[in-house]
From TrEMBL:
<feature type="signal peptide">
    <location>
        <begin position="1"/>
        <end position="34"/>
    </location>
</feature>
<keyword id="KW-0645">Protease</keyword>
<keyword id="KW-0378">Hydrolase</keyword>
<dbReference type="InterPro" id="IPR000667">
    <property type="entry name" value="Peptidase_S13"/>
</dbReference>
<dbReference type="GO" id="GO:0006508">
    <property type="term" value="P:proteolysis"/>
</dbReference>
<dbReference type="InterPro" id="IPR012338">
    <property type="entry name" value="Beta-lactam/transpept-like"/>
</dbReference>
<dbReference type="GO" id="GO:0004185">
    <property type="term" value="F:serine-type carboxypeptidase activity"/>
</dbReference>
<dbReference type="Pfam" id="PF02113">
    <property type="entry name" value="Peptidase_S13"/>
</dbReference>
<dbReference type="GO" id="GO:0000270">
    <property type="term" value="P:peptidoglycan metabolic process"/>
</dbReference>
<protein>
    <submittedName>
        <fullName>D-alanyl-D-alanine carboxypeptidase / D-alanyl-D-alanine-endopeptidase (Penicillin-binding protein 4)</fullName>
    </submittedName>
</protein>
<keyword id="KW-0732">Signal</keyword>
<comment type="similarity">
    <text>Belongs to the peptidase S13 family.</text>
</comment>
<keyword id="KW-0121">Carboxypeptidase</keyword>
Length: 535
């Protein structure tokens, strides 16, 4: 069943609007020795001026702009140089999912048993079999349990066995940062998992800390409620109006969540999203609790293992189709969706549900979209890995080729839209480029890691011309978001043959912390705004 309507009802959070300095009346002249760029017309000179902003001296920035109808290159600055794409890597994964799995593809989760049934009694083990679905919620496991109860099963004499063998047991991607491991945007990948919300943040839980009276301990709740994780809190409630110093963390190698620091009395609850260790166990625990609530008693313990051949299917749940999953996946840059889609692509082709098998299909898919896989390095589906290497020219080529595919409307609709406040439409661009020429006319995938930023997609220019652009920045010391916004705004102002030079918004230096957060050692890190639930 589809849950996209639920996705659209997720409350939006205020974000920080991208800061651009006042438009200058005269263009900034590129300094001597600046990297060369093609495009000697008004558009090319204006874009060159933007990219020459002193704040980004020493950064490695590539930008390609092409007409969508003819493929003509309107601007190219170092477009062939490979760079870390961050979440622009999801453009490749989205194309893989739609091209090789298909827009109507669905994941399947089942409850099965090889045991004989005698009246209300199941005489052996009960298997909860995962099929890679990253959108499973506690309500879905509850519905599976209710189906068994409605069928008259009241007693399982064997065990509850969690089967996650549809995918391999490699939980984390190659080259993922160790210090991101406790956080939900870096959650472990399992074929049997659970999400705590309708953003479908699979493999994680929500920790909610509510202050008590001053001097008392705050209340700590976990969503979904479960006994799989343990909370150890030494946090206190401080005086009203005081600072919030709460730190929520998870101990490595287990599911003990620690809460330390202070929250002032009267403050609204603090919410943190934390990845769990081995999400298969969390899904099984939530399902077992659901069985108990519906009056189905399992005598044995909980184990893991493969479902025997020939087991009878007692209940099943099919996910929303891929075309609907593309919305929370791309709009909110969901890493876990990306990796589930890659592994599913490998499994659906008759291979293993693994990164190697899925990435082999990804390489075949992008080759069919004009991208030479021998000139890329892609080791995951989300762009989390620092080992991924893709050039702006390759991204632009993929975006152009996608326009000729029957699944393009789903691909195009999944991209965030600049300045549109509705979170299910604007996504990671909802707070950027508002009240500019780009508002509502730029559809593009964002990408953000510390020192890496990207924005690639489609622009409807002022004269109605459709443009494709890909911009990837590496080795940045300040946020590149104002630079990207200035480029996108200028593209939205493009007037074709009648184009004239425009006043250029030249970005000023801006701390990465304005788009990110502080790391454990106090240093600033930069992340996608959706990963911080800030957009």
């Amino acid at each position: 069943m589809s849950r996209c309507p639920q996705f659209r009802r997720v409350p939006s959070r205020p974000g920080r609007v991208a800061v651009l300095v006042a438009l200058l009346a005269a263009l900034v002249v590129a300094p001597a020795g600046a990297p060369s760029a093609t495009g000697d017309d008004a558009l090319g000179r204006d874009l060159s001026a933007v990219l020459a902003a002193p704040a980004f001296a020493g950064a490695d920035i590539g930008l390609v702009v092409r007409r969508a109808d003819t493929g003509e290159v309107l601007f190219d600055r170092q477009g062939d140089r490979r760079r870390q794409p961050a979440s622009n890597g999801k453009l490749l994964t989205g194309a893989l999912a739609l091209d090789r799995l298909g827009p109507e593809h669905r994941f399947r989760t089942t409850v099965e048993s090889p045991a004989r049934r005698v009246g209300p009694v199941l005489t052996g083990d009960l298997y909860l079999r995962g099929g890679g679905d990253p959108t499973m919620l506690a309500a879905d496991y509850d519905a599976l349990a209710a189906h068994l109860a409605h069928a008259g099963i009241r007693l399982v004499r064997g065990r509850l066995v969690a089967d996650d063998t549809y995918f391999d047991d490699v939980r984390l991607g190659l080259g993922w940062a160790w210090d991101d491991e406790p956080y939900y945007y870096n959650a472990q990948i399992s074929a049997l998992t659970i999400a705590p919300d309708t953003d479908y943040d699979a493999g994680s839980v929500i920790v909610r800390v509510t202050p008590g009276a001053a001097g008392a301990a705050p209340t700590v709740e976990v969503e979904p409620p479960n006994t799989y994780v343990t909370v150890r809190s030494t946090a206190t409630t401080g005086a009203a109006g005081g600072p919030t110093t709460l730190v929520v963390d998870r101990e490595h190698g287990g599911n003990t969540i620690t809460v330390t620091g202070s929250i002032p009395a009267g403050r609204s609850p603090v919410t943190e999203y934390m990845a769990v260790w081995e999400p298969t166990g969390l899904a099984a625990a939530v399902f077992r609790d659901a069985l108990r609530r519906h009056g189905v008693h399992v005598v044995g313990g909980t184990a893991t293992g493969a479902t025997p051949p020939g087991a009878a299917v007692l209940a099943e749940r099919r996910s929303m189709p891929v075309r609907e999953l593309m919305l929370p996946f791309m709009k909110l840059s969901n890493n876990m969706h990306a990796e589930a889609l890659v592994k599913e692509a490998g499994r659906a082709a008759g291979g293993a549900g693994s990164w190697p098998a899925g990435l082999a299909r990804l390489r075949a898919a992008i080759a069919g979209l004009g991208v030479d896989p021998a000139r890329t390095a892609v080791v995951d589906g989300s762009g989390l890995s620092r080992m991924d290497q893709v050039s702006p020219a390759q991204l632009a080529e993929l975006l152009l080729a996608a326009r000729d595919r029957p699944w393009f409307p789903d691909f195009h609709a999944s991209l965030p839209v600049a300045g549109v406040a509705d979170r299910a439409v604007g996504g990671t661009l909802r707070n950027r480029m508002r009240d500019t020429a780009a508002e509502g006319r730029v559809r593009a995938k964002t990408g953000t890691l510390t020192g890496v930023s990207a924005l690639s997609g489609y622009v409807t220019a002022a004269d109605g011309t459709e443009l494709v652009f890909a911009m990837v920045s590496n080795q940045t010391l300040t946020s590149a978001k104002p630079l990207e916004d200035a480029v996108a705004i200028r593209l939205a102002q493009y007037a074709g043959a009648a184009d004239r030079r425009q006043p250029v918004a030249v970005p000023e230096p801006r701390s990465a912390g304005m788009d990110g957060t502080a790391g454990a050692d106090g240093t600033e890190v930069e992340l996608e705004c959706s990963w911080r639930k800030a957009c």
